[in-house]
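Case study.
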Amino acid sequence: MCGIVGYIGSGEAAEFLLEGLSKLEYRGYDSAGIAVYDGSDVRVEKSVGRLAALRDKIREDMPKGSLGIGHTRWATHGRPSDSNAHPHTDCSGDFVIVHNGIIENYLGLKEDLIEKGHAFKSETDTEVVAHLLEEVYNGDFEASVREVLRRIEGSYSLVFMSKKHPDRLICTKQDNPLVIGLGEGENFVASDIPAIIARTRRTFIMNDGEVAVVRKDSIEITNRRGEPVTKKVFEVNWNAEAAEKGGYEHFMLKEIHEQPKAVRDTMSQRIAKDGSAIVMDELKWDAEFLNSFNKIYIVACGTAYHAGLVGKFYIEKLARIVVEVDVASEFRYRDPVVDENTLLIVVSQSGETSDTLAALKESKRLGAKTLAITNVVGSSIAREADQVLYTWAGPEIAVASTKAYTTQLVLMFMLALYMAEIKKTVKPERCRELISLLKKLPSQVSETLSDVEPIKTFAKHYGFNEDVFYIGRSLDYDVALEGALKLKEVSYIHAEAYAAGELKHGTLALIIEGVPVIALATQKSVYEKTLSNIKEVKARDAVVIGIAAEGDEELEKYVDHVMKVPETDELLIPLLTVVPLQLLAYYAAITRGCDVDKPRNLAKSVTVE
Ligand code: F6R
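After joint prediction, the assembly is written out as follows.
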């Protein structure tokens, strides 16, 4: 996720900018840059790669001046490169900006601005903001920024600097974090508290739609309508390590809580304005393309493989195309039937998993068409695949994957619906209905996260059991697999997921008194059958924790505890049911004193076979 810093005062801006950016490194980035006003001009320095590369570039000749902004970039639009790194400027170089987020309507704005004669230097969505400001500028910096904000759509935190107005920085945010640090004769801006904590602990936390004009000895904040806002000073009393985690104890918990935003960002720009269709500008597929293959393979590892299983369900159900899913480490050793009539979809958060990359390369060699679903722009898998769909989850730091999984699910659902629209296998009314439910998901995920107390209690209660079983049918089974993996990897409890109907073919022998069984029962089409499997384990005195949709009054009659998630279509409910399972794994690990963010024997990215 991009990191933003800004400085105005009497000290050397560059010193703070580099120091602040280094404290934001944990957010993940692929390039960095700073801009400093030296009293007559603005000097912009950028470099792809680590912050050290930027430091090396300017070490002998540091930009001098007391007004500046800086940025670490996590690529979304445009690959990691010097020219795509921020800060970005307009044609004249008068306006300089840094941005975190996505400007959703940038393509239309860019076409318009190019027609008006603006010359773009990067492939980013961000650069339109600088040119738009140049276009609408009327001598009043703040009013012109407000005009820009009226014209852009999307999520952002933005800091504006202008050599025409060197006495101020202007900053604002929508759906992305931004804080102002209050100093003595100097003020700081940052996307996150760790960047400023060494300089001040007194902060203003910006709210959506607020605009702040930050001078060295004053800060004026107004709301969307331009009315003054009185803000309370937030005194930070976390240490630097806690601040990096946004006040959460672990990255895993922070990332679980980031899911509403990650899901929303991944959807954004991919739904037609009138809500009637999925738009995949990255693909531009048509019926001819879909008819050019007769089989789809989804290949991935671990959690991404579990997301692939859900993807198979979506594509088969909605687009009526046969899909096979395989773990990447098996796929290429079993001489798979892959040729030019195959579409291979690889799913990988990191885009670097060596088995997944090797499966992709091998399939390409055999003539398959390839599509990557990944979270990292410019990763090896993104570069190797013919086409790429990005999840916009932001960097995932905890080893246990959480927000990557939910965003992979959203993207695969959208891909399946997109294919269904082309193949006309789903009626337009159903398509609209699913899209309207899809749009509700971010707030429903938030709702699911709003009451963690019962989950903490279960985790404390059952956290010392040796074995836990997860059961479910249909999509509930796929989510059960992911829930069991989460529990295993962070709490080291032996966990097994079973298709509920398969229990009596062997595993039921392990169900004895007191064994915890997590039973997912959200799939209406197999609800009665799931219920009868739950009765089978209950009859063996298992302790059953049921997961059901709101409105289900039946399940609680047969289980010991129930956790409810908001109601939605059964296709979309995996995005909600997985959340309590992630939290259960997290709190079980806490109960057992495990190192949640760095589980034993595991690495975030598996780049060896
Ligand atoms: C589990 C987990 C792993 C990864 C797997 C694939 O929580 O994180 O199972 O899902 O190593 O990694 P990517 O998605 O980076 O290819």
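Observations recorded in class. The pocket of fructose -6-phosphate is lined by residues 301-304, 348-350, 353, 356, 400-401, 485, 489, 605-606 (CB under 6 Å). Residues 109 and 128 are 7 Å apart (CA to CA). We will return to this complex in the next lecture.
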